[in-house]
Design brief:
By secondary structure, the protein is of the alpha/beta class. It folds into 2 domains: 141 residues, Rossmann fold (3-Layer(aba) Sandwich); 220 residues, Glycerate kinase, domain 2, CATH 3.90.1510.10. It contains 16 helices and 14 strands. Strands 3-4-5-6-10-11 form a 6-stranded mixed β-sheet, sandwiched between helices. A 5-stranded parallel β-sheet has the order 2-1-12-13-14. Strands 8-7-9 form a 3-stranded antiparallel β-sheet. Helix 1 links the parallel strand 1 and strand 2. The radius of gyration is 22 Å and the shape is elongated. The C terminus is likely disordered.
Length: 381
């Protein structure tokens, strides 16, 4: 019996690697002799670099600009000429206390610094996971770190989405020269455009602390950003603002598309990077999961991506989670044969969070039960 464990993190409780380790321990107790392969994964947001490192990439550490201009220690992952960069690790929402001020001033500059560092050190393929961002600056900070020059009435423009309302010109002639030949992959499930009622500021601004006035100002800043790029003759600047994914990460998706990036679902990219298909060889069952398995999960989150990939090899998938609101029918329609939640064995949600590892090891016995049944039937016959 061989089981592949491919979970995402349980946010606020366990990393994806921790989830896999606890599941492995529980399965080995419940199924002596079982072969367990641990492959922590992610969906392009927090945990993407960790998933790459677990799959054999090498960490590259450096200091970069955090979401509010502070210096933060961060890292990305490399293997050969491929670099995996995670926005949440340098300018992520988890790094701030979201309020009106942070929503207006948060910058994507640190992400651009990581991209530049990777280019300087030989990367020719850059995978940029943009989930969990703090900024709504249209990727202006990222481009500035890569050599763009933004100016306003008083000279060089300050960082942050609110400052974009004053932008009067942009010069992209100083962009990092290696961008012209590098392959850029935007790992994101978000299909929002940059502007409008379904855009970056309107939909995601409130999650980042923006009140209605800040949302309106951020929207105005993004609109001014598109206008100035169009006036500067940037190819398809307005058209790309309306493209699916332009609104990802407060508009970093837009900046990536301007640089020629290809947008792909985050979990699909991570599964490719980690060699998921190769790891499926000889596997009898895949176990995936995340902290909350709900209707949002159905829109391309990690468990669904894992189940889809496993199904192409006719390998069944079950999921573990902290809690779930999905019906069994919804789960099966998504390719997941069964869902096992911590709340099935511990109704106290606070304890589920604080003792998630211990409870996952107990939950593994429920995952193992159907695998034991055929053996018992054979013995009885």
């Amino acid at each position: 019996m061989k089981v592949l464990l491919a979970p995402d993190k349980f946010k606020g409780s366990l990393t994806a690697a921790d989830v896999a380790a606890h599941l492995a321990a529980g399965l080995r107790r419940a199924l002596p002799g079982v072969e367990v392969d641990e492959l922590p994964v992610a969906d392009g947001g927090e945990g993407t670099v960790e998933a790459a490192l677990a799959a054999g990439f090498t960490p590259v550490g450096l200091a970069a600009t955090g979401p509010l201009g502070e210096r933060v220690d961060t890292r990305y992952a490399v293997r050969g000429s491929t670099a995996v960069i995670e926005m949440a690790a340098v300018t992520g929402l988890e790094m701030v206390e979201p309020d009106d001020a942070t929503a207006r001033t948060a910058t994507s500059r640190g992400l651009g610094e990581l991209v530049a560092h990777a280019l300087d050190h030989g990367a020719t393929t850059l995978v940029v996971g943009v989930g969990g961002s703090a900024s709504t600056d249209g990727g202006a900070g990222m481009l500035a770190a890569l050599g763009a020059r933004l100016t306003g009435p008083d000279g060089e423009l300050a960082d942050g989405g609110d400052a974009l309302r004053a932008v009067t010109s942009v010069d992209l002639s100083g962009l990092h020269p290696r961008l012209a030949t590098a392959e850029l992959v935007l790992a994101s499930d978000v299909d929002n455009p940059l502007l409008g009622a379904n855009g970056a500021a309107a939909v995601y601004g409130p999650q980042k602390g923006a009140d209605p006035a800040a949302v309106a100002d951020l929207e105005a800043g993004l609109a001014a950003w598109v206008d100035v790029l169009e006036r500067a003759g940037v190819d398809r600047a307005r058209e790309r603002a309306g493209a699916p994914g332009a609104g990802a990460a407060g508009g970093v998706g837009y900046a990536c598309l301007l640089l020629g990036a290809t947008r792909r679902p985050g979990v699909e990219v991570v599964l490719d990077l980690t060699g998921f298909d190769r790891r499926l060889a000889g596997v009898d069952l895949v176990v995936t999961g995340e902290g909350s398995l709900d209707e949002q999960s159905l829109a391309g989150k990690t468990p669904m991506g894992v189940a889809d990939a496993a199904a192409t090899h006719a390998v069944p998938t079950v999921a573990v989670c902290g809690r779930t609101t999905l019906t069994p029918e919804q789960a099966r329609d998504a390719g997941i044969e069964a869902v096992h939640a911590l709340t099935d064995i511990e109704p106290d949600v606070r304890r589920c969070i604080s003792h998630a590892g211990e409870l996952l090891e107990q939950l593994a016995a429920r995952v193992a039960a159907p695998l034991l049944a055929p053996r018992h039937e054979t013995v009885d016959s």
